[in-house]
Amino acid sequence: MNQQLDLHGSFHVYDTTLRDGMQQEGLNPTVADKLAIARHLDGLGVGYIEGGWPGANPKDTEFFRRAAVELDLEHARLAAFGSTRRAGLLAADDPQVAALRESGAGVVTLVAKSHVGHVEKALRTTLEENLAMIRDTVSHLRAEGQQVFLDAEHFFDGYRLDRAYALEVLRTAYDAGAEVIALCDTNGGMLPGWVSDVVNDVLETTQVRVGIHCHNDTGLAVANTLAAVEAGATHVQGCINGYGERTGNADLVNVVANLELKLDRQVLPPGLLTEATRIAHAVAEVTNVPPAARQPYVGASAFAHKAGLHASAIKVDPDLYQHMDPAGVGNDMRLLVSDMAGRATIELKGKELGFDLSDNPELVTRVTNRVKELELRGYTFEAADASFELLLAEEVDGRRPSYFDVESWRVITETLTHAAPGEEAVSEATVKLTAADVRYVVTGEGNGPVNALDQALRSAIEQAYPEIAKFELIDFKVRILDQGHGTDAITRVLIETTDGASSWVTVGVGANVIEASWEALVDSLTYGLLRHHQD
Amino acid sequence: MNQQLDLHGSFHVYDTTLRDGMQQEGLNPTVADKLAIARHLDGLGVGYIEGGWPGANPKDTEFFRRAAVELDLEHARLAAFGSTRRAGLLAADDPQVAALRESGAGVVTLVAKSHVGHVEKALRTTLEENLAMIRDTVSHLRAEGQQVFLDAEHFFDGYRLDRAYALEVLRTAYDAGAEVIALCDTNGGMLPGWVSDVVNDVLETTQVRVGIHCHNDTGLAVANTLAAVEAGATHVQGCINGYGERTGNADLVNVVANLELKLDRQVLPPGLLTEATRIAHAVAEVTNVPPAARQPYVGASAFAHKAGLHASAIKVDPDLYQHMDPAGVGNDMRLLVSDMAGRATIELKGKELGFDLSDNPELVTRVTNRVKELELRGYTFEAADASFELLLAEEVDGRRPSYFDVESWRVITETLTHAAPGEEAVSEATVKLTAADVRYVVTGEGNGPVNALDQALRSAIEQAYPEIAKFELIDFKVRILDQGHGTDAITRVLIETTDGASSWVTVGVGANVIEASWEALVDSLTYGLLRHHQD
C-alpha cells in the first residue's frame, strides 16, 4: 500500500455528483444537502469535488460561499464548474468568469465546445472565436492563480465529425495552461474500443494530460472509463451511485472499486474503499433516492445468495461463490432465506443475526420446518429479515417477543358525499389493545385502510412506548400470490420501517389484504421495540 | 436488412429471464406470469427462451407442461435448463435428466462444472467423474433427439485456476455433441479485456462454438458480453431488464441494442428492436418490479432532457443531444417530466382498437393530453388496454360508456372474535347503485375488502345484466408508486378480467388502495358490458 498516495498528483479521482449528478430527473438538493454530500465524498477520499456552477444559479453561488467557511475537507479539493467566456468579451470582463474566479475554489473546471456542430448550432459562434474563448479564459484564470481543468464537451462525437478541430481545441487549452483535459462522452453513445482508439490517438498526437467523463446511455459508462484509463487517461470523472442526466454518469464507486480491486491500482487513500457501501447509502439518504439493491459492489443484493443448494459449499469456501470479499467495499454477504433454504442456510443466517445455533440441531430443524411451512403459505423471509428474526427469537426463547396485546380492530372505508375528484373515499380504523398493563381504545383516520390502522395503532402504543414516534414506514409492497383467483387471492404485504438510523422489513400474508398488512404492521413495531430495548 | 435472418443459425440471442433472471431477490412469478413473459420475449424476437428447470421444482415442471399446450411461439425456441447427471448413475437412469428429456423442449441447456474447486468442494466428486457426467448426459440427450447447449459454470474463474481442466470440459462437451458452450462468468468478477483473452484462447485451442453468460457484479456485464462477441462468441445470454441474482445478469435488450445500433449486427428479426421499450416495461408489470428510469435505451429517463438551456438547439438538431434516435428502441425523447405517449402512439393504439384517428388531429391531441395528464397522476395505459379503450370511447362519443350509476359504497374489515388461525378478519361491503332504472342496495361479504366490493357490485348489476355472471377477475396487482411515503402513498391497481373467451385489463389510481381498486373494478365490468353489447 502506498501511504504516500498523492490524490492531486499522477492520478485523479474527480467527483461531479454535486454538479452533473444533480442533473438527474427528480434531484433537487438544498445547499445543506450539498454540503452533507461533500463531507461524505471527502470521507471516501476522492481527490476533487466539483461543487457546482457558481454564478449560474443562486444555490450554487451560496454553496461555494458556505463551503469556504463550513467545509473542512481532509482529502478533497473543491472545484468550481463554469464555461469559457462569452463570445466577443474579454475573460477578465465576463461576470460568469468572475464568479468562478471569486468562488474560493482552488480548481476551476471549464466546459468548452470541441464539436464543430455544437460551436455553430448551439454556441452560434465561429470555430476561431471558440478557440479564442478557450485560450483567453484558461490563461486568465491561470494568471489569477487557479488550477484549470477543461471538460471537452461532446468530444468523442466531435472527434468523429472533425478530428482536426477537436484536437485543436485540446492543444489550445493545453497551450493556455489547462492541466487536465477531460474527454467527455456527453451523449453517452460510445463503446470501450472506440474510447481506447480515441484516447490513444490524443495521447500520441498531443501533449495533454487526458481525463475521461462518461455517461451510461449504452450501459457502458464504467467500461468506457476503464478503457480510457487502460489507454492512458489519468483522471476519472463520475458520480456517486451513478447519478446524472438520462441514464446517469459513470458510477464513481464502481469505477474506483474496479481500479483498486481488479486492476490493482491504488487511487483512494488506503483503507477508504471499505467506506464505500456506507457512503453510497448515506448519499442516497440525503438525495432521497432509494438505493438500487442490484447496484454493483454496494447494493443490498450485491452479495446476497439464494443459498439452499450451495449453502454447504459456501460454508466451506465462500470464495467459490463471490468475486471478492464484500468487506473490501464495506458490504456483507447475505444469505437469503427462501423456500430453497436448507439447514445450513438457517444456521448461517442465525449466526449473521447473532444467534449461535451450531450446537442446537433440534432448534435448527424446528426453524427450518417453520420457514418451509410458512413459505408454502406465501410468506417470504428473503426480504423480510425482521420477521425472520422475530421467528428465530420465538423459537429460541419459546415465546414471540411482544409489547402489546391486540383485542380487536376494525377499519371502515367509505365514499364521501361531497368529495373533490380523486378524493372520494376515506378510511377510519378502531383498535383495542393493552400495552404496559393499560387498555387503549383508539381511532385513527387515513387516506387508506392501512394508513388508518397505522395511525390508530401508533397513537395507542406511543403512550406506553414513546420511542416509536421516530419509527417511520418508508415502503409498503403488495403482491397477489395465486394469480388466477382475482380479488379472492392470497396477498403478501412487505413493510419497510426506519428508525432514522437503519431500516427493517416485515411480512404479512393472508386472503385479506388488510389482515396481511396488519400482521406486517404489528411485526414492524414489535421488531423496532425489540431492537430499541436491546440497545 | 437481412430478411433471411436465422435466429437459430450463426448467431443466437438466448434469453434466460425465466430461469436465471428469476433468481433475483424478491422475484417469485407464477406459472401464468412466466407464460406471459415468454410471449413478450417472443414478441421481441429472441431466438431462445430458457423456461426453467423442469423436475427441480413443481412450478417449472408445470410451466413446461402448460407451455407445450398454450405457448404458440413465432420466433423463439424453448430451452429447458438442467444439470448433468448425478455422479455414479447412468444419464438414462437419472430422474432429473428424464425431466429434461420429457420437458417437450427442443433444446436442453445443461449446466456443468468447469472449475476444479467447484467439482471437488461443491459437487464433491472427482475430476474424471465430472467429465464422464458431461459426456454421458450430453450424448444421451443428443441420442434422444434434443439439441444440447452447455453452460460452463464458473468458467472464467476455473480457467484461471486450472486452464487445462477447464478446456478439457469444453472439449468433452463438444465431442459428446454440445452445439454451443456458453462460458459463464457466474460470480461476475471479470473485466472486458480478460474476457477477450479467454475467448480468444478457447477459440484458438478448441473447436467449440462459444457463447457468453455474464453477471453484473463489476458493473460490466454488458461490456463483457460485447467483448466476448467481438472476440468471436456467437451466442449471447442475458435477461430482460438485467434481472438476476445479486447485481443481475447482462441486460439482454442493452446487449442487443448495442449490437444492432452500435456494431451494426442484425441479431433480432428486422424491426422488432423498436418493441424493446414496450416489452421491457410490460415484463416489469408482470414481475411487479418498478422499471428503472435510468435504464439504458428503454428507461423513462433514457432520452429525457432537462430542457431550457438546449431546447432551441434540440429543436434545430436533436442529434446534437442524443446518441441515437430513441424510436429505434421504441422510446421517446422527452423535454419535460411527462408521458411516454406521443401522438403517433395514440394514433397507432387507436387503430389497433378499431378507431381510425388519422383524419381527426384535434381528437388525437385531446386524447394525448388526457393520457399525459393521467400518466402523470400514476395511471398506466401500457398494460391497461381496456381503460384506454374506455377513455378513447369517451373522447370519441363525448361521454364515457356507462351501464350503472353508483351512489355510494362502504366496506368494513374487522377481526372475528372466534376465528381460526389465519382467518382472523372478514370484510363486508355495501353498494348503492342504479342499473337499468332500478335502484339497488346490496351487501356482499368477502375475505378481503376488494373481494367484498366485487361481490356486492356483481350481485346488484347481475339483476340487470345477467351476462356478467361469466366475467371473472383473474388477476389483481397492486403497486405503490411513490416509494418513501409508506402507507400514505399513491397506489396503482391493475385488474384483469375474463369472460371465458378473452381477457382485459383495467387500471385505478388513488391514495386509497380500496378506492383505486374500486375504480378498476367498475371499469372492468363496464368494459366487459361494452364489449358484450357490441358483439
Automatic annotation (TrEMBL), chains A, B:
UniProt similarity note: Belongs to the alpha-IPM synthase/homocitrate synthase family.
Biochemical pathway: Amino-acid biosynthesis; L-isoleucine biosynthesis; 2-oxobutanoate from pyruvate: step 1/3
InterPro entries: 2-isopropylmalate_synth_dimer, AIPM/Hcit_synth_CS, Aldolase_TIM, Citramal_synthase, LeuA/HCS_post-cat, LeuA_allosteric_dom_sf, PYR_CT
Protein name according to UniProt: Citramalate synthase
SMART domains according to UniProt: LeuA_dimer
Highest rank taxon of the organism: Bacteria
Domain (Pyruvate carboxyltransferase): residue spans on this chain: 11-278
Key words, A-Z: Acyltransferase, Amino-acid biosynthesis, Branched-chain amino acid biosynthesis, Isoleucine biosynthesis, Transferase
Pfam hit, one: LeuA_dimer
Parts of the chain that traverse the membrane: none
Coiled-coil segments on the chain, per record: none
Organismal lineage: Bacteria, Bacillati, Actinomycetota, Actinomycetes, Propionibacteriales
Gene Ontology biological process terms, A to Z: isoleucine biosynthetic process; L-leucine biosynthetic process
Gene Ontology MF terms in the entry: (R)-citramalate synthase activity; 2-isopropylmalate synthase activity
PANTHER family: (R)-CITRAMALATE SYNTHASE, ALPHA-IPM SYNTHASE/HOMOCITRATE SYNTHASE
Alphabetized PROSITE patterns for the sequence: AIPM_HOMOCIT_SYNTH_1, AIPM_HOMOCIT_SYNTH_2, PYR_CT
EC number, as in UniProt: 2.3.3.21
Catalytic activity: pyruvate + acetyl-CoA + H2O = (3R)-citramalate + CoA + H(+)
